[in-house]
Amino acid sequence: MSIAPNSYSRTRKRLLAAAASLAIAGAVGFGAVATGTAPVLADAVRVEAPQVPGFADVVERVSPAVVSVKVKAKIEPAADDGSDQSDDPDGGMNNLPDNPQLRQFFKQFRGFGDQNGQGGGNRRFSHRDHNNDQPRPVAQGSGFFISDDGYLVTNNHVVEEGSAFTVVMNDGKELDAKLIGTDPRTDLAVLKVDGVGKFTYVDFADDSKVRVGDWVVAVGNPFGLGGTVTAGIVSARGRDIGAGPYDDFIQIDASVNRGNSGGPTFNLNGQVVGINTAIFSPSGGSVGIAFDIPASTAKQVVQDLMKSGSVQRGWLGVEIQPVTSDIAESLGLKSQNGALVSSAQDGGPGKKAGITAGDVITQVEGKDVASPKELARLIGAYSPGKSVDVTVWRDGKNQTIKVDLGTLPSTDKQASADPQQPAAPAKPAALADLGLTVTKSENGKGLVVTDVDPDSDAADRGIQPGDVITSVNSTEVNGTEDVAKAMADAVKSGRKAVLMQITRDDSNRFVALPVAKG
């Protein structure tokens, strides 16, 4: 059978086209094998975005000034009952049952508990080797140089149990240091390294310019790792965590852990804005809440420690409490600023100068007093013997009293009050408007509370049977008629509350109670 020429030609073209298609498919499917050429690859993903500034330049400059602090002490072993075990080389192990596993457990863990100082310190306690009188490690923290001749700052709780101190430089070199002085009230300490040469050091910042939200960098020795850098922001200012009378912490969210104590927190200019001293942590590790001693506080304390090895603070000699809205109303104050004097200590500078219970201290040397904490900081900043003008609110007006400050005792003195006699059981009288039943005290000074209406404002404000009402609106009271008169005077003056001075367990406090208007 013959094929027409035109038909043959068309058939041949179809076959050639099919072969070409197969060749292309083979090239796609087998790549270089089929085609003999290199594969064509897509470019790796790359995003052209603005670069966020880092902390490397700051860290590079400040790191040589930051050190790890190792503390050693001689620790005498003690039995669980407090008795000495020096005659028992096994530390009481002979009293254990004959159980190898139990003995091994106590050998490993007795006396080696890892204790957390203030939240930032890394403390490990151990017994002394009885055949070696050398100090043993008890604590480890951080610190930083503040002068080129070897003065450095750390926390008091890092060094407080130490007898020998070693600082580990950023390059790993270890140097002996001596303790210059400590200040437990602010948890600060100063060490000194001698005879080594010049040191890289850092300076304190003006922390009044630190704002919530500013970037900060913490450098320290968490868990003994050394030279560790973390970053975060300032989370809050003026935190009071109940650590002492001078609480004014800077809160940061940079990761701070045990061993960071005493280490610096820097701003982006490489200046120290705060010193790590405590963390809030349910688990013992960082949860992003750390507290720094402000640079302004540290700078003054450190200068005093370098100069004399201790800090001498002014002392006013008064017990104080906050001014609540009710108290402000009862005294005719327009705000709750100030510190209410609950008592002036006998022999104290304040009482000698004429400050009395019921005064509200509003200014010191023209500086406003916002709270009791602020008053403590202001007075503590002055040297003993300094004469200061103290402005008090008394009898509805301001008065200025000149006080020659004393020296703050090593332990806070408590104001002493005349011991109150037991309440006389006879003839109780009711102060119905206040929800109180009272009777005269046996010594004739004040009224003893014998009963409190549980639904009254007095109960809500914590007044209890046995409390002694000694004054109302700064006027001594010895009978219910004195209280009634003070309440009537308050109403006439347009006040909504009266201020009662209450004595309980030899201490004083003030309570504001609302008065009913007839």
UniProtKB/TrEMBL annotation:
The reply to whether Lyase figures as a keyword in the UniProt entry is no
* CC per GO annotation: periplasmic space
Q: Where can this protein be found? A: Periplasm
Q: Which spans of this chain does the record mark as coiled coil? A: none
Point out the signal peptide segment.
Answer: 1-34
Acidic residues: which segments have biased composition? Answer: 78-90
Q: What is its EC number?
A: 3.4.21.107
Keywords from the UniProt entry = Hydrolase, Periplasm, Protease, Repeat, Serine protease, Signal, Stress response
| Catalyzed reactions | Acts on substrates that are at least partially unfolded. The cleavage site P1 residue is normally between a pair of hydrophobic residues, such as Val-|-Val
**What terms describe the molecular function in GO for this protein?**
serine-type endopeptidase activity
Q: Which residues form the PDZ domain?
A: 317-369, 434-506
Q: Could you confirm whether the keyword Coiled coil appears in this record?
A: no
In this chain, substrate is annotated as bound at H157, D187, G259, N260, S261
The residues responsible for catalysis, as annotated, are: H157, D187, S261
Q: Which CDD domains match?
A: cpPDZ1_DegP-like, cpPDZ2_DegP-like
* GO biological processes: proteolysis
**SUPFAM superfamilies reported in the protein's UniProt record:** PDZ domain-like, Trypsin-like serine proteases
Name the segments for region: Disordered. 77-100, 116-140
Q: Which PANTHER family match?
A: PEPTIDASE S12, PROTEASE DO-LIKE 8, CHLOROPLASTIC
Family in the record: Belongs to the peptidase S1C family.
What is this protein's name?
A: Probable periplasmic serine endoprotease DegP-like
Per the UniProt record, the lineage of the source organism begins with:
Bacteria, Pseudomonadati, Pseudomonadota, Alphaproteobacteria, Hyphomicrobiales
